[in-house]
Design goal:
This protein has 594 residues and is of the alpha/beta class. It has three domains: 184 residues, von Willebrand factor, type A domain (Rossmann fold, 3-Layer(aba) Sandwich), CATH 3.40.50.410; 247 residues, Rossmann fold; 75 residues, Factor Xa Inhibitor, CATH 4.10.410.10. Helices cover 31% and strands 17% of the residues. The chain is built from 17 helices and 16 strands. The strands form four sheets. Strands 3-2-1-4-5-6 form a six-stranded mixed beta sheet, sandwiched between helices. The chain has a six-stranded mixed beta sheet with strand order 9-8-7-10-11-12, with helices on both faces. It has a two-stranded antiparallel ribbon with strand order 13-14. The longest helix is centred in the C-terminal third of the chain and has 19 residues. The termini are far apart.
Length: 594
């Protein structure tokens, strides 16, 4: 008899190309293929983890739902509905990458729970797609979310072919069927829809990928400040340790030109608060300390402890570039700075971060960021991440096992993207800024960057389906940067704002540690003296803030609950506008005006 199909519970999405150049004949081919595949698939008749659930979307520039997972539980009714789907005439250009990302983030947001549940997305395309970047990003996200894509193309699609070359699991399929007689549905049924990993078909090449061989020097810069939660710190340690299994580490870090070399630093020691001339990092090991992952893992497990100092990312990056990368012999082809953050940087470090991050990008460093939690500003995350940000940044709302697994998978696929040379470093978008930096212009042009939308996670409401909870939470909490959000449904809108980053070419030449304490003291003094300049009505409406440093001085603040001015100890930097030099100054602004 006919083998059961699907063997495992499957969430299957079909994406129909309805771009401006799609002919009626091409559309009817797509619909006929969908119907042929649906005839051999058994639908799930309940929420139990068996059979397949089907969703169908159409796409061009935007993506639109035609059939949702929950709508059909009987094959005959589903087939009738598919036969009635018409070709929608549209002026929209084709963007298969945006459609892929929409499906990953929205259609697969609600799936059944279970370790055996499979997610498959089958795309039809009648021609070239306009944006290679979104296709590359989609491959990263599909790999991280364990979604298996199949693309059926009626013409050659080099952007998709190149992006799918990043997949080393052999799960991603690209089928070029220019003529109807080219169609071989068996390759989809046996190797994707009806695939049985316990009894795989001999023609299927699905494999467990080996560690990635990529020629790189990579330094992990871990947030070890007092602002990061201890559980997040331990998760960050585990993440670094696990990532060592995903790429080949050289056994000869001093001599061999092949394989990766790894360094690890933590930022920042407690003493760096008061003495800016010391190192802002604890160097755990550099690029030539260890010749294998096991020694690195032991060091991470036994010797890496939370420093609980200030967050000084900018200073830490500068030290890392000068003392880890530039001092290592035989630099590798790729130099990667992998920053793991759980908190925003200190106020006195922000300008340093802007300067050093821009300089590093202009020097060709690849900057990847893993953000744990929602306490980091989007501007800092963008500064710390190479372009395009959605390929170099992962932000996790909460740091649980599923979320960390997503980060590991995303980072692993990114290594294949790096190996394949998909992006240029520095990117074309930074060309003018880097030229200004190299010329040493007195004033750089202010760069307008797109703000990354980070949807907030509000949790699963009481009415949520238990079967859908796990995957739903992961996708909602994993809020990577989005370059081209697809606005399809009213409830799925993204809110964009613009923000500015300012580069100052006069200070582009980085100071060396131990030689610039006077300048830091001067900056600190300037920060302390800004209290008087904050005198405006906003000062009376915010709670007072003691600041981030420990150089304490007596100041005054307005207590809006008690409606009085009270003294408090100010640490010397940071804080907010509710800070006054004298009681009289506080009362003159806040009490007299109330």
């Amino acid at each position: 008899g006919t083998a059961k199909c699907p063997v495992y519970p499957t969430e299957l999405v079909f994406a129909l190309d309805m771009s401006e150049d799609v002919t009626l004949a091409a559309f009817e081919r797509m619909r006929a293929i969908v119907i042929s595949l649906l005839r051999i698939i058994k639908l799930s008749e309940s929420n139990c983890p068996t059979g397949a659930r089907i969703s169908i979307v159409s796409y061009n520039t935007n993506t639109r739902y035609l059939i949702r997972f929950s709508e059909f539980q009987r094959n005959n009714l589903l087939l009738e509905a598919v036969q009635k789907i018409p070709l929608e005439r549209s002026s929209g250009r084709r963007n298969i990458g945006a459609a892929m990302r929409f499906i990953a983030r929205n259609v697969f947001k609600r799936v059944r729970q279970g370790v055996l549940v499979r997610k498959v997305a089958l795309f039809f395309t009648s021609g070239l797609s306009q944006d290679a970047t979104s296709i590359n990003t989609a491959v990263l996200e599909f790999g991280a979310l364990d979604i298996t894509p199949v693309v059926i193309a009626f013409n050659e699609v080099p952007n998709v072919r190149r992006a799918f070359s990043m997949d080393d699991t052999r799960r991603f399929q690209l089928l070029i069927w220019e003529r109807q007689q080219d169609e071989r549905l068996e390759s989809i049924t046996y190797c994707t829809l009806c695939y049985d990993k316990c009894k795989p078909d001999t023609n299927c090449e699905v494999t467990v990928p080996p560690p990635v061989m990529v020629n790189m020097d990579i330094t992990y810069v871990m947030d070890s400040s007092g602002s990061i939660d201890s559980d997040e710190f331990e998760r960050a340690k585990d993440f670094v340790s696990t990532m060592l299994d995903h790429f080949v580490i050289t056994s000869e870090p001093r001599g061999s030109d092949e394989g990766a070399r790894v360094a690890l630093v933590q930022q920042a020691p407690q003493s760096f608060i008061s003495n800016r001339s010391i190192s802002p990092v604890n160097k755990e090991f550099d690029l030539i300390t260890y010749s294998g992952k096991n020694l690195m893992k032991r060091h991470i497990q036994e010797s890496v402890h939370q420093l609980e100092g200030p967050s000084a990312i900018g200073h830490a990056l500068q030290w890392t570039i000068d003392n880890i990368f530039f001092k290592a012999p035989k630099p590798r082809q790729h130099r990667v700075i992998f920053t793991i953050l759980g908190s925003k940087t200190s106020s006195w470090d922000r300008q340093k971060l802007r300067e050093v991050a821009l300089q590093a990008k202009c020097q060709g460093f690849i900057m990847f960021t893993l953000a744990l939690g929602n306490n980091i500003t989007s501007s800092e995350l963008t500064e710390l991440s190479s372009f395009p940000a959605e390929q170099h940044l992962v932000q996790l709302g909460r740091v649980l096992k599923l979320e960390m697994a997503y980060a590991q998978k995303f980072s692993r696929v990114f290594l294949n993207l790096l190996k394949r040379g998909m992006n240029s470093y520095p990117s074309q978008e930074l060309q003018e800024e880097c030229e200004s930096l190299n010329r040493g212009d007195a004033q750089q042009q202010v760069a307008v960057l797109e703000r990354i939308p980070f949807p907030e996670f509000g949790g699963i409401d009481g009415g949520g389906n238990v079967e859908e909870l796990t995957e739903s939470r992961v996708i909602e909490e994993i809020t990577e940067a989005t370059q081209e959000p697809v606005d399809v449904r009213q409830e799925e809108k993204y809110d964009f704002e613009e923000y500015f980053t300012e580069g100052n070419a006069e200070e582009a030449k980085l100071e060396e540690y131990g030689e610039a304490p006077e300048k830091n003291e001067e900056n600190l003094k300037e920060t302390v003296e800004t209290g008087a300049a904050y005198a405006n009505s906003d000062a009376c409406t915010v709670d007072h803030d003691g600041g981030e440093c420990q150089d304490y001085n007596l100041k005054w603040h307005y207590d809006k609950e008690q409606k009085v001015c009270s003294p408090f100890w100010y640490g010397g930097c940071g804080g907010n506008k509710n800070r006054f030099e004298t009681q009289e100054e506080c009362e003159a602004l806040c009490i007299a005006s109330s």
